[in-house]
Write a structure and sequence with these properties.
The chain is of the alpha/beta class. It has 2 domains: about 5-215, 3-Layer(aba) Sandwich (Rossmann fold), CATH 3.40.50; about 235-505, Ribokinase (UDP-N-acetylmuramoyl-L-alanine:D-glutamate ligase). About 40% of the residues lie in helices and about 15% in strands. The chain has 20 helices and 18 strands. The strands form 2 sheets. Strands 1-9-18-17-16-15-14-13-10-11-12 form an 11-stranded mixed beta sheet, sandwiched between helices. Strands 4-3-2-5-6-7-8 form a 7-stranded parallel beta sheet, with helices on one face. A hairpin with a 5-residue loop joins β16 and β17. The protein is elongated and about 80 Å long. It starts with a strand and ends in a 7-residue tail after the last helix. The structure holds ligand NPW and potassium ion. Potassium ion (K) binds near residues 119 and 123. Potassium ion binds near residues 120, 122, 123 and 152.
């Protein structure tokens, strides 16, 4: 497993534990890191005439001295531009001593068109915005359109948050070590990394396991064993029943998109719960999806009692008034004692169901925290997130990963913080960053489909965090495969090949 994401503190700890366990020491790790980067430079640019290696004062610079030594040894014209000397007796100082090339000051860095830059200024130790000589070097490389290979991270990109501090290199490739860092996947860092190459430098899986990292790159390996595949004796209600609330007569489409996606995702039955005045318009557009008139909480209770739904979607096209809050709180009360017979496994609150609680989010969180409340998944985009969690959203230091985690803990809900770098976080601190997104998904109704997929998986008893991770990945994969011209109506059908491959891969996952 190599999809865990390590913070800079965790990476430092991995480094320390590896050295303590032996036999590799600090300079040994640095040599391997530098070899991996030099190998990548030679592989990508086999006919490079001249490589400029920019070395910072810390261990990132140390890696740079190893790169320069190997490139020069391979016959490539290599120049080192150093920003300060490494600390005496440090691994970086050893690496510099092993490098036969004299360095020139970064303050006079110049390069010619057609040359290559290796950025070994700052990596995990970036502590402030790039300024002075380093910022000027970014300007030189950018102005000349020089290909940049970054060591560990493009200098200026925070490994923990993906933020750009001041300015940053835009690399053609970034070679990182042992595991990716959150900043490789979170925006804008991801855009600055170019191709990300993961190099094994001898930090063992056992060492990483000891750190118990809480964040992963969202891939099927993390949730495939929980992915529902119908049993041979399945009948439709055993495969889960999803209820999707529809808006009024002129806002019904979002619910139907969500309902279709829930059905495609394997829920055995799906019902659109429609206000009385929108029954006709909904009925005119539904075939296998059922329809039930739902105007008040009594209607919800009756539906829950008689039809035993296991998941609901509330929000798409629903409006943001009192009714939304009342319905939301009634759904969250489904597991309470008076309704013990009516067990609902999971709820997806999206769009208007999030915005409706902007004036009193605590009421929502309180309801979600009650014992026996159904599991709640909320899927805010940035605007919706800041309505429900304004203080968390305004924090200019925390990463999107930290923000999603803080929100999940506060709301006792799985939070799917949407965007081109969607983060999924659970109340217990587990989190995943999605990286298979496609720009084609930024289209009206796409979020309604995501809610439907999530509810479809929840209804089949997939655990909430895993269901949310799977839904985000599946939705993105379907969107990327479809590509140009995608509209939300295409997505439910576009899920089919993605689901087929997952179902086929599912039995190959070891159980346990
Ligand atoms: N961990 C591992 O397993 C392995 C790690 N390895 C490598 O080590 C790298 C981490 O090394 P590192 O901790 O020495 O930090 P690094 O990024 O070199 O920067 C620290 C120096 O830069 C300075 N500085 C920072 N920002 C600045 C700015 N904007 N402007 C000016 N100065 C700034 C900072 O100054 P200070 O904050 O102390 O004032 C300090 O002097 C990691 O990315 C990887 O490449 C590999 O060798 C293999 C094994
Ligand atoms: K770097």
């Amino acid at each position: 497993m190599s999809d865990e994401l390590l913070t800079s503190a965790e990476m430092g700890e991995a480094d320390r534990l590896t050295i303590a366990a032996g036999p590799i020491d600090g300079i040994g790790l640095m040599r391997r890191a530098g070899e991996a980067v030099a190998g990548e430079v030679l592989r990508r640019y086999p006919s490079a005439m001249h490589v400029h290696v920019l070395c910072g004062p810390g261990n990132n610079g140390g890696d740079g001295y190893v790169v320069a030594r190997i490139l020069a040894g391979s016959g490539v014209a290599t120049t080192i531009w150093a920003s300060g000397a490494p600390r005496p007796q440090s691994d970086a100082a050893l690496a510099a001593a092993e490098c036969p090339i004299a360095s020139r000051p970064l303050s006079v860095f110049e390069a010619e068109p057609g040359s290559i830059v290796v950025d070994a200024l700052y990596g995990a130790g970036l502590s402030k915005p790039l300024s002075g000589d380093a910022a000027r070097a970014v300007g030189v490389a950018t102005a000349l359109h020089l290909p940049v290979v970054a060591v560990d991270l493009p200098s200026g990109v925070s490994g923990d948050s993906g933020r750009v501090l001041g300015v940053a290199f835009a690399a053609a490739a970034t070679v990182t070590f042992a595991r990716k860092k959150p900043g490789h996947l979170l925006l804008p860092g991801r855009e600055r990394c170019g191709d990300i190459v993961l190099a094994d430098i001898g930090i063992g899986d056992d060492i990483i396991a000891r750190l118990q990292p809480r964040a992963v790159d969202n891939r099927p390996a993390h949730w495939l064993r929980d992915f529902p595949v119908p049993a041979v004796d399945a009948h439709k209600y055993k495969r889960g029943h999803v209820g999707v609330f529809s808006g009024g007569p002129s806002a019904t489409g979002a619910a139907r998109l969500s309902a279709l996606a829930a059905a495609r995702s394997g829920a055995g039955a799906v019902t659109v719960l429609s206000p009385g005045n929108a029954m006709t318009v909904n009925a005119g557009h539904l075939t296998s999806i059922m329809l039930s008139k739902t105007d008040d909480v009594a209607d919800i209770r009756e539906f829950v009692g008689e039809r035993r739904p296991s998941a609901f979607v509330l929000g798409p096209g629903f409006g943001v008034g009192d009714k939304t809050r009342t319905f939301g709180l009634a759904l969250l009360a489904c597991g309470q004692a008076q309704d013990a017979a009516a067990q609902v496994d999971g709820l997806v609150f999206d769009a208007d169901a999030i915005t409706a609680f902007r004036e009193a989010p605590e009421i929502l969180f309180e309801a979600a925290r009650r014992p026996n409340a159904p599991a709640l998944v909320m899927t805010p985009h940035e605007g919706e997130f800041s309505r429900l969690f304004p203080d968390i959203a305004d924090d200019n230091v925390s990463s999107k990963l930290d923000k999603a985690r803080a929100a999940a803990a506060r709301a006792n809900a799985v939070i799917v913080y949407k965007g081109a770098d969607t983060v999924i976080a659970a109340p217990d601190g587990r989190a995943a960053i999605n990286s298979n997104g496609a720009a084609w998904l930024a289209t009206a109704g796409s979020g309604d489909v995501l809610s439907g997929i999530t509810a479809g998986l929840l209804a089949q008893a997939m655990p909430p965090f895993e269901a949310a991770c799977a839904a985000v990945w599946i939705h993105a994969d379907a969107g990327s495969r479809f590509g140009p011209g995608l509209i939300a109506e295409d997505l439910p059908l576009a899920l089919v090949p993605v689901l087929r491959e997952l179902v086929e891969a599912r039995p190959k996952v070891p159980v346990g």
